[in-house]
Design goal:
It is built from 21 helices and 24 strands. By secondary structure, it is α/β, with parallel strands linked by helices. Helix 3 crosses helix 7.
Length: 620
């Protein structure tokens, strides 16, 4: 979507009205229905006047195209300023990332800096990285740019930023080489840069052709994806995973606006839902069908993105991993296929502000083929909404054919369904025949320990093998270290035990960061992911009394939003609320205790529950 598009002369005339910020603001309101914050309006006013000054040169043709606030299709990304024209040999598109910054600080993270937002220093991407990543997105997914060999040249212009040793530091040279950085005294240099590519105007409406282009992965991206997956044992499919994969490929290839398909794939922990989803993501894009991997929580997206790209930069790959809230205003059938992992975590509406209409509806609307990978026993939040029947209902309403498959082969927890059955029986989620550890008949290292310190030491020792052991806990302790890095969160005085929740600096990749074993994760950082060995601290929200496994939501931390509003729900709908809270807390621990491929070690805060686990896991 293009918010504003004129030639250089028309843009300059608009600037001369002294209302260019108003013109852009009204254009955004007309295009999107959204109002613009006052600080953004001020940014437009400043930056666009500076760009007009740079362009005020007779050697830059008046009929060059100028586009402002170009929304990259299938993303939430907007490009500040675009210039289109020709150098005589080929058509060129210049991306200019505009910033009003006046200060920045380096970080120890690749491509990231800190700058001042709303009065405090916040982490964000380097401007050259931003410009370069936008160019990579357009090059990787726009058919016109690939087929007509349009040259896309990114750069960044920080008109208020005096030169220093931060943004131009050697640590950022990879990005500043790809997307040159122009600072406060560099207007003449930026003008010279633009003149290299703009000897002639935009006589063939390049930006309109790009806007109307088919969105599909480029051949170079497809080739990169093929090489990434080749020989990667982590994503090898077995048994029924292959069957689901082939069916999904067939449905995606035979779906269109008039013949829409929804595939619902049910599977428990460790049955390979994510493995199939990632394989589909790669193969569909390799075949030229634009597909995206969708989750509500960011942890699975970030981890699989990191695993796929390895040590390559590939910002275009990130566009394939999107939030379930990204489709509120997406055009119908804009993407060939959407692969929704952890579909049980979808919410009815998006975010704290309850935006959009319905995530299931929005996803099905946005693609001819939608695949939902779901495990209803892993619903762990009061707002978790999607169930199989809900997905089916929306599919029928939207004219999509419903297809259903299941994954049953267990590859986690020692490869045994018996462990899951035993766990369900002990937690009293459902009654099974597996009432003891031995009767489950599986090869899995399960232990109940007598202290959190012992649990921590076990995990530390196992992690030395291959960095695939982590500690997790129920969210029963406040996240004090979020505001006070020196504070400890999980403190159990009788054992002189103290640890912190996962550092915010890890982002969503806590489960694979080599240093993160020193912190404790929770359901939000590990659901949908796995390690070899998991250590679980079962908090005081799960207890055992008089033969019953009970839950105590009051023992959850005030920082935990997964049961936010439960007191009002208990007042309004007591029986429903009790059942829901029981399900959420038990499912949370079931999910945590099924993250380990080879073993699970637990410590229970409640002595009676600990005793029940000990008895059941040692009884013949």
């Amino acid at each position: 979507m293009i918010v504003y598009q004129k030639n250089k002369e028309g843009f300059s005339n608009d600037v001369l009205t002294n209302d260019i910020d108003g013109i852009i603001t009204r254009a955004i309101k007309s295009s999107t229905g959204k109002d613009i914050a006052a600080n953004e309006v001020n940014a437009f006013r400043q930056s666009l006047h500076y760009m007009d000054t740079v362009l005020h040169d007779n050697d830059i043709p008046d009929d060059c195209g100028i586009s402002i606030e170009y929304h990259i299709p299938c993303t939430s990304k907007r490009i500040d300023f675009l210039i289109t024209g020709s150098d005589g040999d080929k058509e060129n598109l210049i991306i200019v990332e505009l910033k009003g910054w006046s200060e920045a600080q380096m970080t120890d993270r690749d491509g990231l800096v800190e700058t001042r937002f709303h009065g405090k220093m916040s982490r964000t991407t380097h401007p050259s990285y931003q410009a370069w990543s936008y160019a990579a997105l357009l090059t990787a997914f726009n058919a016109t740019i690939e087929e007509e060999q349009i040259n896309v040249q990114p750069c960044a212009y920080l008109h208020n930023y005096a030169p220093d040793e931060v943004l131009t530091n050697e640590a950022y040279s990879y990005y500043t080489d790809k997307a040159p950085l122009f600072l406060k005294p560099d207007a003449v240099r930026l003008r010279a840069f633009i003149k290299q590519f703009m000897k002639y105007g935009d006589r063939r409406n390049l930006i309109i052709r790009i806007e109307k282009s088919k969105i599909r992965p480029s051949k170079s991206l497809a080739d990169s994806l093929r090489s990434i997956m080749k020989g990667n044992r982590e994503f090898v499919m077995i048994d029924d995973q292959k069957e689901v994969y082939e069916e999904a490929l067939y449905l995606a290839a035979h779906s269109n606006e008039k013949t829409k398909n929804v595939l619902i794939v049910e599977g428990g922990p460790g049955t390979g839902k994510s493995v199939v989803a990632v394989n589909l993501l790669v193969e569909l894009n390799r075949r030229g069908l634009m597909a995206q991997y969708v989750t509500k929580t960011s942890a699975p997206r970030e981890v699989y993105f990191d695993k796929l790209r390895g040590d390559k930069k590939m910002p275009e790959l990130r566009n394939l991993f999107v939030s379930s809230g990204a489709f509120m205003s997406a055009p119908k059938n804009a993407v060939a296929a959407l692969l929704v992992d952890e579909a049980h975590r979808l919410t009815e509406r998006t975010g704290f502000l309850k935006m959009g209409e319905n995530q299931v509806k929005e996803i099905i609307n946005s693609a001819p083929c939608s695949v939902f990978f779901i495990d209803e026993d892993q619903r762990v939040h009061i707002n978790d909404y999607a169930e199989c029947w809900i997905i089916e209902e929306w599919a029928k309403k939207l004219g999509a054919k419903v297809n259903k498959l299941s994954l049953s082969s267990q590859f986690r927890c020692g490869g045994s369904d018996g462990y899951l059955a035993w766990l369900d029986n002990l937690l009293q989620i459902r009654e099974t025949a597996n009432d003891s550890f031995q009767s489950a008949d599986f090869n899995y290292d399960f232990r109940v320990v007598d202290s959190p310190s012992e649990l921590r030491d076990l995990i530390f020792e196992k992690n030395k093998i291959n960095n695939k052991a982590r500690l997790v806990a129920g969210y029963c302790w406040d996240w004090k270290s979020q505001k006070n890095p020196g504070a400890y969160d999980i403190v159990i005085p009788e054992f002189d035990f103290q640890m912190r929740w996962n550092l915010k600096s890890y982002g969503s990749t806590w489960i694979i960061d080599p240093n993160s074993v020193n912190e404790v994760g929770c359901i939000h950082t590990c659901q949908g992911l796995e390690v070899d060995y998991i250590g679980v601290i079962i908090g005081p929200d799960l207890i055992y009394r008089d033969g019953q496994v009970l839950v105590d939501p009051a023992k959850r931390s005030k920082d935990d939003k997964s049961i936010f509003g439960y007191k009002k729900l208990l007042s309004d709908r007591p029986e429903y609320a009790k059942n829901l809270l029981r399900s959420i807390i038990k499912n949370t621990y079931r999910t945590l205790m099924t993250r380990g491929m080879k073993g699970c070690y637990i410590y229970c805060m409640d002595e009676q529950l600990r005793y029940q686990f000990q008895v059941s896991s040692t009884r013949a």
